[in-house]
Write a structure and sequence with these properties.
ACT_dom; Acyl_CoA_acyltransferase; ACT-like_dom_sf; GCN5 family acetyltransferase
């Protein structure tokens, strides 16, 4: 077998093929290719036998939600992100809200402890900056969070105020008659009204839903999402989770505990008729004859949640209310005289507090008379830190729920709505 080479005279001279020489040439070519391919790697003598440099120590970081305004022009957002990156701030999510000549940018950030976030944003061109501490719940992306809120609203009409509050942050939500803003429902158009820090929407139950957040203007995106939740509530109509629990009583027998709403209005009025004047006075702090006037409001899912204790014959013998009062949350109880001191009130109160914990409330308060030893004992029985305020015989007892959250107080799904 022969190889062929060119001689100096341009002719072709046959040469016997040497497989060992050919292998040597191939090895040299492979070595040259590898040298060119991996030329970016440092030479072995650069590192010597020294161990690799240790990783920098982990720095404690905290989550922040931040909103700031930048000019709507090329490079403005990049300058802001660069300023954050220089301080090792990690951008976990970003939403932009174009508003004419400016854009409102909303961030979820992981910030090294001790970082001056306000100075960093100002250096990047951000103005009108607002920030608050975030938690792990804020790591859920926007569409997923919105779907979860819609699912909660679809299950229970009482969830709408809570869903709006979780969507929009700290805000005050009120349901008011439309006549407060003009003549009839036409005072608020079907598409609603957005006025800087105020949103007004038609309440599916009649009247107007007003949402206020004085510390931070609403964006058009937030307005559109809030309107979508209210429209969903209107389309689905009245609804309430079914199911009930059997509650054994301390002196024998049992009652069932379930959710109640305005469909139970007649049964609740009948219970009022069986209650003594003293029981009604302790509960409503006013003329006994006016007690039943409050029931339609108290039983409405728009203003909170109600639990009813019911006998096997269908009589309601106790009601417990968890009422959304702006940024506050009130609890209230009434137990028919013949069923008092049997543990019903304490059980309803415990379940209402569980609902408040599940809804993310910071505290609940009860307004009663200083002489109402039953309500005082029930609040003490919660085992939570309590604050007391007394003025002219009226006692306000506030329970802080951070201890209940840490202790894992059962939620409504665990304790009330089992089928």
């Amino acid at each position: 077998m022969f190889d062929v080479t060119n001689d100096r005279d341009g002719g072709r001279t046959p040469r016997r093929w040497n497989p060992l020489a050919r292998a040597a040439r191939c090895g040299e070519a492979l070595h040259a290719w590898r040298t060119r391919r991996h030329g970016h790697a440092p030479p072995a003598h650069d590192t010597g036998g020294a161990p690799p440099s240790p990783e920098p120590a982990a720095v404690e970081s905290v989550l922040w939600r931040m909103r700031t305004t930048v000019r709507d022009e090329p490079g403005a957002l990049a300058a802001l992100c660069t300023a954050l990156a220089e301080r090792r701030v990690d951008i976990l999510s970003l939403q932009t809200h174009p508003l004419g000549a400016h854009t409102v940018d909303e961030f979820l950030l992981r910030v090294p402890a001790g970082t001056d976030l306000t100075a960093a944003v100002a250096a990047g061109g951000g103005t009108d900056t607002w920030a608050e501490r975030a938690d792990a719940h804020d790591l859920v992306d926007g569409p997923t969070r919105m779907l979860a809120l819609a699912a909660r609203t679809a299950t229970d009409a009482a969830e709408l105020p809570l869903a709006l509050r979780q969507l929009l942050g700290r805000c005050t939500i009120r349901s008011q008659p439309a006549t407060a803003f003009g003549a009839g429902p036409s005072a608020v158009p079907p598409e609603g009204i957005l006025e800087d820090t105020v949103i007004r929407l038609r309440d599916p139950e009649g009247g107007v839903l007003t949402v206020e957040r004085p510390y931070l203007p609403f964006t058009p995106t937030e307005f559109a999402r809030a309107r979508a939740l209210v429209e969903l509530d209107a389309r689905l109509g009245p609804r309430m989770p079914g199911g009930r629990d059997v509650l054994p009583l301390s002196e024998g027998g049992h009652v069932s505990v379930r959710r109640a709403d305005t469909a139970d209005l007649d049964a609740a009025r009948d219970m009022h008729e069986r209650c003594s004047a003293e029981t009604l006075r302790r509960r409503y702090h006013g003329p006994v004859g006016d007690a039943s006037r409050y029931l339609n409001h108290l039983l409405s899912p728009r203003f909170g949640r109600t639990l009813a204790a019911q006998t096997a014959s269908g009589d309601i013998v106790a009601l417990g209310h968890l009422l959304w009062d702006g940024d506050e949350t009130e609890v209230a109880l009434i137990v028919e005289d013949a069923w008092q001191r049997r543990g019903i009130g304490a059980e309803l109160l415990s379940r209402l507090v569980g609902m408040a914990v599940e809804a993310g409330c910071a505290h609940v308060y009860a307004v009663t008379q200083a002489s109402n030893t039953g309500m005082v004992a029930a609040m003490r029985g919660l085992g939570l830190p309590l604050d007391y305020q007394i003025e002219e015989g009226t006692l306000v007892i506030t329970a802080r729920l951070d201890a209940a959250s840490a202790a894992g107080t059962p939620t409504p799904d665990q304790r009330v709505f089992r089928h």
